[in-house]
Write a structure and sequence with these properties.
This protein is α+β, with helices and mostly antiparallel strands and about 150 residues long. It has 6 helices and 3 strands. It has helices spanning about 1-5, 35-50, 85-95, 100, 115-120, 140-150; strands at about 55-60, 70-80, 110-115.
Amino acid sequence: MLPAVLRCFRPVSSSLTLTRPLAHFRPHMDSDASRPVERAIRTKLTDSLNPDHIEVHNESHMHAVPPGSESHFRVLVVSSQFEGLPLIQRHRLVNEALKVELSSCVHALAIQAKTPEQWGGNPTLAKSPPCMGGSRGDHTVEEKLKAGRD
């Protein structure tokens, strides 16, 4: 996993803060060039599923990865293509659209796949639980990451 995480690492400018207040977080805005994986996810899901609504959230900051990583995502896709499909098939459509990213730099993908009717009845995005695994408690992670970059 470490090489895949490092491929998605992008340095963070010293002038930027590592976290942003939620007031400045706009999940519906178009992603910019500084977030290539997020942009690829949004583009591929839009092209393949023609969603009525889409949200792509980079949740990497909630995990033990280098600042600026794009490795953990939560997506909400509302599409009429999901009509009549069981949840597992909806997830398979999302996974198929993102197979390149899932086989390279995306380590985790949480999916909410809703029909327009479901979205109309409950227009919310579930929140992710706090990270409980991985190297969160490993105080040597910085040395491991440094060794992986060498």
